[in-house]
Structure formats: structure tokens, C-alpha cells
Amino acid sequence: MKKYNTACPSGFPEFTPAQERVRQQWLAVIREVFEKNGFLPIETPLVEHEENLVAKGGNPKEIYVLKRLHDDGEEGHSGNAVRFDHTVPLALYVARHLNELAFPFRRYVIGPVMRGERAQKGRFRQFDQCDIDVVGMENLSLLNDALMPAIIIQIFEKLKIGDFVVRINNRKILLGILEIFGVQPQKYELAMKILDKREKISDEEILEELESAELTGLQAQRFLNFEISNKNNDDVLKNLREHLAFKTSKIFQEGVMELQIVIHALKAIGISESRCRIDLSIARGLDYYTGTVYETTLLDDRISGSICSGGRFDDLAEIFTGKKLPGVGISIGLTRLLAQLFEAKILQPDRSSPTEVLVIAADEKYLSHALELGTKIRAMGFATENYLEGKKLDKQFSYADKLGIPVCVVIGENEVKSGTAQVKNMKQKKQEEVKIKDLEKMLKNVLE
Amino acid sequence: MKKYNTACPSGFPEFTPAQERVRQQWLAVIREVFEKNGFLPIETPLVEHEENLVAKGGNPKEIYVLKRLHDDGEEGHSGNAVRFDHTVPLALYVARHLNELAFPFRRYVIGPVMRGERAQKGRFRQFDQCDIDVVGMENLSLLNDALMPAIIIQIFEKLKIGDFVVRINNRKILLGILEIFGVQPQKYELAMKILDKREKISDEEILEELESAELTGLQAQRFLNFEISNKNNDDVLKNLREHLAFKTSKIFQEGVMELQIVIHALKAIGISESRCRIDLSIARGLDYYTGTVYETTLLDDRISGSICSGGRFDDLAEIFTGKKLPGVGISIGLTRLLAQLFEAKILQPDRSSPTEVLVIAADEKYLSHALELGTKIRAMGFATENYLEGKKLDKQFSYADKLGIPVCVVIGENEVKSGTAQVKNMKQKKQEEVKIKDLEKMLKNVLE
User: Which domains does chain B have, with CATH numbers?
Assistant: First the structure.
């Protein structure tokens, strides 16, 4: 007999049913908070025309394209590439629906993206991103930059993931520093990308990379060590305003003013400093942000990297629309975050089944009575399932145990005759006979 | 300037935000009913090893595979094919988690699948399927076959899609008919496939096809015309039991007995005959069902085809697991159904934004007051958005109108001084000043 390799393809993960239940609960919370903040749901196709993805900075080595297994040359099947993020599809969505949309356009999207990265632990080739973005027509108020952390904080507090902090910066401040240190403008982007590796490689390695990017030793040192470390956002802003660069670099000045507006708005909406803190080392060098940038850190050594990042971009879709569309957005890397939380046992799924009540027939003869009763219990509002296989009672109970179903309702000859049912509390291993008319009250007591 | 084709790739549709809001509401209902019936959520990767999809009957001409745009020969990127349904991934999921699962394994899955079909109106290459299946170890009670229509009926009634009927049959009855008419066994499958086209092509064409499949003219006629048409399920069953074939064909007899058990169970759980009716012409010829089969029809001329189909299969994953795993399942073709309902204007989305309250500053000076107020209103439980762009009042109101936001709350100098806000009911174009402390009650009145 042929042997099949049934494992998931490398980099394409899946969860167990118990984990998936947690993922579904998280998705519901994320969706709810996005909607409570007035974001519209959209969903774009998994694929777009290849050239559109490449045009907006996709790394061709990581882009997957679709081909048919046996291509018969029929038109329209080639040239389609799988989205690698939700931002380029957003640009295309806006281009496609430009005249139907109200601006500022606030949308959320939740779904998988694919990147053909080298497979390694914690790196997936397919993973879910949960994104919100606000896109303006011509202009977009900086106050929107304050909403992004505010929304993320609502979500993570509701999910009770433990202590976390959204770290915020403005790339213009870093650019200003490079300017004032006399770095040539064409090296700015590269220097930012190198700074972005700060949490992955050592300071020595950063310095080496900066020097091989042709910054002088002194420039590299000063860039790496530029930091105004105060715990207090206001003090950081004060120090920034007093910094030499504030008078001599226009872009630095702009960055500080922008950051100040955002921090003040965060105060107005009651966000505490322990939740959103200025961190001048945040560069987001690999993305195309032009102002505010965010990274979110879970204050737990077992979870590495940013769990939610984003920023402001001057230009979303000019090449597609001919219009200036500035925006700001943030994205939760859901799959990676959940996988880490499960792995570290920070998140421990309790049960895999949504079923609250398993209805059991003590004898196969009473299966259709049990079906009827199951329908009745479901109509009371409980998630209800019938065990239909006509197995022995202990087998049926162990099925409930394996799935973590909290209550079994059993009927047999006596119960059918007397209009009762046996209610078994699976945790307390306690069984009680109740009249069918009292069943609803009884189940509410046990399940609440 | 380069011109980009920003349209969705052919066959890969997307909805407008207003339509997407409906889709999200539908998904929530479908998910809720699946869970109320005790089905576990799972989610499998979008791709599986190519040979596994081909092994389980995927049409190679319709299977998409993933390649990287610039393949550097790195391992693990090729040989991955996109799922074309949720049944083969279910088989693989069961194989991967065989020892962790409790049987019967009841799972639901909601998500996109891809088929490289010829692009045409109403045919998509990417579309969502919402599937439930119950998979047994070695055996699976026929009562599960009654649950499928029962669950689908709960969903479609909750979604208020109008009058519909789940049509049910058992393929063994059709096989028995072919047997009794003397058709050679190796022609059974083809004959079923041809019968399956019944609603798409004329009877003459069916007869022609049956004859070119080497049925005699008489066999073809009799097969096509075999029908016991009664409105009443019990009468149909009675006629089937009295049919000549019942005595002479074992498989026919089996089919009738099975159908009878399912119909009796449907009665026990209170499903009315107007919702679930025997239809002996249902063949599901293109799928690999072995017993019960379902199709669901919306009783509206504008909606064509089955909106929800499924059936029983003897063998889910024997080639992957070496075990006998019979199952029964049903699937809603969500994308196609929604697209048709929108197209026919049977479903008319009312508004695109989830926002209930838009908070507006009459003057830019009061934007941070407005932000504070917005946070307060959101904490009351209303979906709340701040308009932050500092535009004139009429521009802000027309933004609310375009999105269908029902209420605007406006604050300016007077309101900030007197601790009040203006509440504008956008439908009635009525504005009223209220004290902030009375705002919650007032908004509840307007929004409920």
C-alpha cells in the first residue's frame, strides 16, 4: 500500500481543536473591538495580479504565485500572486472602490497571508494578520495615530494576555539624528534597517553593519547610542525639544512635534503611560513608514519580538490611483503570537468542544426520545449534542470527559416513563434525577 | 506613468464594505449554530501536499499549486497544492491527529477553497465553504444523517433567507434502480453523474448522454423517469417499500431502510416536511457519497442551483490512516449564495459602517474634548468613532450619512462650557441638546 505523507506542509501550521477554540474566541474579541471603534470589515481575495504585489515592495523571493497542476494554457490562471500582507491589498481595494468609499476610510481585515520564507521555528509561511488602517484623502489628522495604540490596548486588555506595552516613536526623529550626525541622505534607509535589528543581534554587530554601510565609526556610535531614556513620556518629549537637533534639523523638529501631538491625544483618551511609552530605538526599518511607528512587547521573557506593529505612511496607493492617500495602521501577528503562547503554556486551552450538554440514551431504544430532548435543551439556549452511537454508558461518559463537556443528561426506560432525566455534573461526578419541567433551571445552575 | 491593472484577478471576487458587513453577520450566525450543535472548530492550512489532494479525487486541471515567483531551489516550497474543498483536508486532519481526537469527531470549518475552473458568471475560483462533518471510528449511526438537515434548517431560518427546502435521497436507491433495470455495474457511476445534470440540461440531452454511456434506450428512459412523486415523505417511503426493486435488489432495500431511519429521526426532532423532503432525483453524481445525499433549494426563481449539499461517505481517510472512518457532512456554498442574493437584490445591505455614534467637534479646538467624550460613549457600549479631520460641520455630517451612521454627537464651545452635547438623529434630522450625564439614556432611546 502506498504511504502518504499526511503532515502539514512545512511552514503551514494548524492548531488542535482546543487551541482553535481559543483562536476563535480571540478572533471574536478582536473583531468586536475593531467594530466598537467604527472600523468597516473588508475581505480581499487571497491573490492579486503579480505585478501589483511586486510594485509595492514585495520581496520576489518570498512571493508565492498560483499555477495549475496541469496547465492547459487557458487564460486568466497565471500571473496571480498570493498576498504577503494586508497593506498592498488595501491599496488595491481603495483603488478599485475609490468612488464608493467615504474618507477617511477606516477598515479592518483579518485573514491569512503567505510568505515563502525559510522555514524555522516560530516562522510560518502562512499566518493570520489582523489589521486596522485609516486612510485619508490628501490629508489625515495625526490624532488617528493615537487611536491605533488605544485600540490595541483595548484588545490585549480584553484578552488578558498579561502585562504589555506599546512602544511608540517617530521615524523623523531618527532621520533627524542621522542628519545632524552628518550621515549622507542616501544611507538613511539602510541605517534604519540596521537599527531595526537591535533586539536580534548584539550592539557590536550593529556597529559593524553600520560601518560597513559606510557610516563613520563616530556616526555609528552616536546613532546607536542616541537615546533619551526617561520613564516618563513628558520628560522624553522635553529632552527632545531641548536636543541640539531640534534647532538644526527640520525633520527632527517635525518628528518631535508629531510625537508630541500623538502623546497628548493618548492622554486625552486616558491611556496610561505604562501601556504606551515612547521608545526612540523603534525604527521599523523593513517597512515603509514615514512618521509614527509602533511595536508592542509582551512583558514576558518567553515571548520574543513585537506582537503588534505598525505606523504612518505618506503614500498608500499613488501608483494605483494617482491620488495622495496618507494612512496609519497597525497589525496583530495572530498566528505567531498564539503559537508562542501555547508553546510557553501561558495560554492553556481548557476544552476542545463547545458542547455544554451531552444527551445520552441509556438504551438504544430511547435514542429518538433523546434526540427530542436534545432539541428541547438546545432551544433553551445551551450548546447541546446527542451521543448517537448506541455504545455502553461508560463509553459515552468517557467521550464527554475527553472533550471536557461539563454536563451529561441521561434518559432510559425509567426516565421516559416518569418524565424525568438524570443530570450528571461531570466535574463533581454527581448525578441527580430531575423532572423535565425543572431541567432548564437545573442546567442554568450547573452551567453558570 | 505605468498603468496598473488593479482589478481583482478573474474569478477572485470581493465584496463592498456594506456587503462584507452582511457576510460577517452571516458567518457569526453560521458559527453560532454549528457550536450550539456541539461541533468543534478546526482550521486547516490553505495548502496540502499535492499528492494527497490528487489521491482523494481532486481534478488535476482545477488544482492550484504554489510556486515562488523567483524560485531559488530552496527545499520545501514546491509540491504544495491549494485545497479545493474541506473534505480532503478533514481526512488529513484526522490522520494527523488520530490519537488526540474523540470519536465520533464532529467538526466545522469555515474558509476559502480554490478551484481553477473556467471563469464565468457565478463561478468563482476562490470561494468560502462552511462545512460540518461527523466522522465515526469504524461505524457511525444513521441518526447523524438526520442532524445535517436539522442544523442547516436552524441556520437558514435564523438568516431569514426566505422559503427553502432540503431535498434528501439515498444513492443506494438509485443504484438499486440501475441494478433492477439491468444496467452493468461498471456504468453506475457514470449514469449517476449524468442524472446529476438534470437541472442544468434538458431531458432529451440526459437521455442522449445515458445512451452514449451505453445504457439501452429503455434503461435510460426508465432510469430518468423513475420517480415516485408524492408530496408526503411517508407516502414516498411506503411506495418505495412496495416497489418491485425492494424484493429483488438488496442495495435498493438498504437505501430505503436507511432513508426511512433518517426521515423518522427528522420527525422526532420536529423538522417539518415542508423543510426536508424526499427527492428521488438527487444523485450528487460528482461527489463520492455512498448513502444519504442532500441538496438545498431556495424557493426563488432568481437563485439557481443547490445552496447547500452533502451526504454520507463510507470511507473518509482509509488510504491515509488504514482505518475505516465513515462520515456524513454538509456544506454551505457561502460566496456563491451571497453573490446571488446581492445580485438579485434579495439581500440589500443597509449600511457599511458598524459605527452607531459619530462624535464631532464643532471646532478643531475641541478635538481632544471630543476624543475624551468618544472614549466615554464607547465605554457605554456603543460602537463609537471620532471624526478627527477638522472639516466643516456639513462635511462631517455627510460623512456620517454616506456610511449610514445613525447618530452624531457634536460638541463645541457652548457644550464644553455647559457640560452638554448636541445629539443629532441622522434619520429624523432632529437635533437636541442633552446633559452629558443623560447622554447614555438618550442614546439608548435613539439606538434601540
Answer: 17-343 (3.30.930.10), 357-442 (3.40.50.800)
